[in-house]
Amino acid sequence: MIYATLVLFSLFILFQLLYIFIPLFSGKGRSEGIKLLEEKEFSILIPAFNEEKTILNCLQGIVNLGYSNYEAIFINDGSSDQTMKVLYEYLDLKPIQRTPTQIGQHEPARGFYQSANFPRVFLLDKENGGKADALNAGIAYSKKSLIITLDADSILAPDALAAMNTSFEDEKVLAAGGMIQISQGFTGSHIKPKPVFNLPGIIRYQIIQYLTDFYLHKTTQEKLKSITVIAGAFGAFRRHALLEINGYRKTVGEDLDITLRIHKLIKTKYKKHKLIFVPQALCYTECPSSYKALFSQRFRWQRGFIDCLLHFRKSYFTNLGFPVSIYLLVDSLILGTLNAYPTILIPIILLFTKNYSMALFFLSFTFLLALFRSIMALLVAGRFGHVYSRKDLLKITLFVPFEILTYRLLGLVFVTFGTILYFKDKDVWNNVDRIGTNKQSYGEGIMLNRKEVG
Amino acid sequence: MKRNLINFLFPLVFLLTFSCLIYIFSDTLVHAFNPGHSVFPQDKKVDITDCQEWTQTVRDFNLKPGEEANRITVLMYHKIIDDQNIQEGHYQDGNSLQETIVLKSEFEKQMALLKKHDYVTLTAAEFNLFMDNKIDIPQNSILLTFDDGFKNNYQEAYPILKKYNFTALNFVITGNITEKDNKYDPMGQQYLSVSDMKKSCDIFDFESHTYNFHQRNEDGKAYLVTKDKEAIMKDLKISLGNISDNQPLFSYPYGEYDLETIEVIKELGIQSAFTVKYDDVRPGKDLYEIPRKTVFPNDTIVDFMDKINLK
Fold first, then answer.
1. Phi, psi dihedrals of residue A68, rounded to the nearest 5°
2. Which residue of B has its CA nearest to A356?
3. For a FRET experiment, which of A239, A363, A380, A450 has its CA 20 to 30 Å from that of A274?
4. Cβ atoms within 10 A of the Cβ of A87, count?
């Protein structure tokens, strides 16, 4: 028993050390990631299902891009709310003809429109089919060689495309993930947003988590060639790659699924090609601000993870590369799901075997490790221009040790119940994809000035 | 510049913090990573009290004048290993067995010899009374003792002792007792399990060999000599509690002790304590410095006869 815990704990420490020290010594900074280069062409795909409250914020991000060689296609996935109407009125849409490329199967289109106000913005209206289905339709109707996928509740930073453009300068890059920031954590205009920390605990918790997951985990995984997921909120792909793997698969975890299939493509056809993380390409997304919405979101993520894990069961170490397989099976599955939360499980095991001083050791060790990891996340974030005021830094200093012992334990609930729900409702959820995602209206924490549009 | 400073300072602070943590918990960690020192819980008791009642029996030997012993031999064993299980690891510097090992075949011969010459193994109570000059015992009386409480004592020695109807003292490092019954492994330092002790308490009289003080400090001095009185007292109390020892005997790890050690064991009500001084035992001698004769792996049967004063 003690040996099993020690092995698990050592693995846990090993991964934590990689996550802490690889980003520290990685050479990138904000200025190095964005260069003035010839603009490559992008199609931005924004699937939208009942997003009437957030869709215009997303649109503002797009029209404010400091970039010209792009088209943005909103895909109305048969919304039952006013999404279509809101866009129609705001964009002054005119129907146009466009011939789609053949790609897998997707629900039929009802119409394709171009905006009279913003000629780079298009709308694809189609029957409801879920997020993967909407993305496939979007790929079919897109015309540019690089595809950006963007969630309808996310807002691109003005230089996000320029950063992606710089990254795709490298021919070997097949796909890239952007840096997702939590919009509630910023104030001021979205041209020059300023990070703030004067927020409810549930949002603070997610901010720390996002900074860690992206600046530390994704940076490390890129170095180790093991980016397991390009977040659906903001990713970029070479269109031919998406066509070669026949687009998205209908699943709750469609972003994890497409990332893994790109890995397979690299392994089988495009050796030496890679997936990267572009920390300079920013996108702001609104995080759930109620526990109900947060639980619903995380259960969905976990179900998507388990689904992909099983779907790819025959591919590990064969047509999925060694590093990806290791990260998926060891870091995500064993340490993340099976062991749910090593930091809490190991001390519990020891408390049961009455090894109190050992339990205290493990607890202190994991606590300090978590603390150092959060400090590192903030350090790296600072290098990319995400700098807090002194007052906010003090708030963070007081919050993080508390958060490690409280909020972070929520992870245990997410993975446990998410996994249970997967096996319980296995057959139901495939078709109810986007239903149940959060449809929060914008809180007061964010003040993106709508008047700047246009 | 600032970046390089952070890249240098952060790992430094990180290393310092975790070094401190590991230093603070070093005792705990040494235990966890040293399987020989897996710890039996301090407050746990091996329930063998009823089964050990025989150790307090005193027989009437019906001796005629002149038949009583005026000296006896106390023999000391550690490990009994089956000849077939002997591996390279059992040897020290090449070709001689470690001093703590006696081959099972030799042990069998030695016990057979004792039986042949009608030797009687004493109980703890008989031994103490003999030392106090309160009873007479036969000249061919003997006391068998095992130190450390190795699992092979149960595995190999117990059946032989039972066959010849002998009993023996077994001085157990109680902190090494295992709660789970692991498969017997003749290599390495494997100690008695709770279940082994329960199954062999009819033959072995389990006594204390400390709880966790069978250790030496950095200078190679035994804990019983270097640790302070309170610490020794605490350790021995735990060990006596582990085996519910009401009439305790004791043997000194490495045979090392000093006046303070003797004070402690007197205070704890321990009746007698065994050293590794090579000599016969005569009544009236100091009960806290009882000599014992080690049986060595290369002892011939003649050496053995010499040890037990058998002509």
1. -120, -25
2. B28
3. A380
4. 25
